[in-house]
Amino acid sequence: MDSKRRDFLKIAGLSAIAGIAVPSAFNSLLKGEALASEHGAAAAGAHGAVAPTGKRWGMVIDVKKFSANPGLAEKCVSTCHAVHNVPDFGNKKDEIKWVWVDSFNHVFPDDSSQYKKPEALDSMPILTLCNHCDNPPCVRACPTQATFKTKDGIVAMDYHRCIGCRFCMAACPYGARSFNWRDPRGKDANGQPFIKAENPKFPTRMRGVVEKCNFCTERLAIGQIPACVEAAAESKALVFGDLNDPASEVSQMLKTTFTIQRKPSAGTHPSLFYII
Amino acid sequence: MYGKGRIIPALILFLGVMTSPMWFKSADVSKMPKPEKPKDYTECVAPVQEMRTSHMVLLNQWRDDILREGGSRIGKTANGTEYVRSLQNGCMKCHSDKKKFCDECHNYTSVKPYCWDCHLQPKEAM
Ligand code: SF4
Ligand code: SF4
Asked: Which residues are listed as membrane-spanning (chain B) (predicted)?
């Protein structure tokens, strides 16, 4: 009789353990699956299978219009940098850039038509900035969540939280982020401040933090369009809008015009589209 | 009690020395911080006592709400006056002189906030 009772207790104990352990293991398995399928849905959405919801700010950059208007790209850069108190340290090594002009080969290095493309491309000024990627590697790399994606698709930064580790810079495939090696409030050897004229409405950054384009979230909040888009408004070289709204100007353009994105193979799903 | 003659006076002396800052400082009202209040506004975004103790918490809440949650950049006081939820574009609209307002208490309590490493203070008052 005694041994029977012993067996009974053993079975009871084992089933109690199983009762606790199995559902939790099962749950975590389920969760893993849910995460994976969520990712799958997002990827499918990017290919147009599932209609995306919510806002996603994006931009169409018409490169031909910049060639037709010499100096326009530089105007966009200087406008943005003036509005956002971006310092000019006067050398390439320390350069801070939110938006910049580069050559076709640098902006689209994985273009497969490399040797058989119009010569004119070489001299075309290509304006480029943070892509506000739908799948941003910089956000995943940041250990402090100083950089994050907002509900309207902007990859934003909270400079208070940036510890200057520069993981995000290593993670970004587009070189869209710059590090403040020097104090942006400082002065050069001739006593000239690095920020020529401070915009009193916007903060500066401090030494030791990373910075990048914020898609003008401070302007969008008060119903204005980004400063660079406004600077190029006359030629319509830059068009800004909600990529998820089928009626928006950007969506209409993308529907009728062939565009390319930077390094699509990186899988970041940029919100910037180029008409070449 | 053994050594009474020395212990009691020593204790009194010790207490006197320990509490001396209270006797000397607190009596000196002129050293208290006197942050200059804005002339054109009488109402702040929260009750005075709350602002005194928790303005820094409020600033962090504004930042996280606006930046991360897409919260409104405009707030309303109890009396319905609208204000910008921003240190640089909101607080400093009324408290336009950092030296006469912020620094008064911060210097007194020896706090050195790093707000101004990035945020710009109104130019006229510098
Ligand atoms: S372009 Fe670079 S910095 Fe901008 S969201 Fe993509 S990975 Fe991040
Ligand atoms: S969107 Fe705004 S922050 Fe970004 S490059 Fe244009 S002007 Fe600069």
From this structure: 6-24
Position in ligand 2 atom list of the atom nearest CA A216: 2
Smallest Cα–Cα separation from A134: which of A155, A158, A110, A157?
Answer: A155
Q: Cα(A40)–Cα(B118) distance, rounded to whole angstroms?
A: 41
Predicted confidence (pLDDT) per residue in A160-185, tens digit = 999 999 999 999 999 999 999 999 99
Q: Which strand (E) or helix (H) includes residue B67? A: helix B48-69
Give the residue from A83, A199, A202, A209 with the most B CB atoms within 10 Å of its CB, the best one to mutate: A202
Q: What is the ipTM of this complex?
A: 0.80
pLDDT, tens digit (0-9, with 9 covering 90-100), for A240-268? 999 999 999 999 999 999 999 999 999 99
From the CA of A129, give the closest atom in ligand 2: 5
Would the CB atoms of B68 and A148 count as touching at under 8 Å?
A: yes
- pTM summary value: 0.80
Instruction: Give the phi and the psi of residue B82 in degrees, each rounded to 5.
Output: -85, 145
The span from the CA of A158 to the CA of B126, in Å, is 27
Is B70 in contact with A159 (Cβ distance < 8 A)? no
Give the minimum alpha-carbon distance from A219 to chain B in angstroms, rounded to a whole number.
11
What is the distance in angstroms between the CA of the first residue and the CA of the last residue of chain B? 65
Specify whether the CB–CB gap between A253 and A239 falls below 8 A: yes
A272-275 and A57-62: which strand pairing? parallel
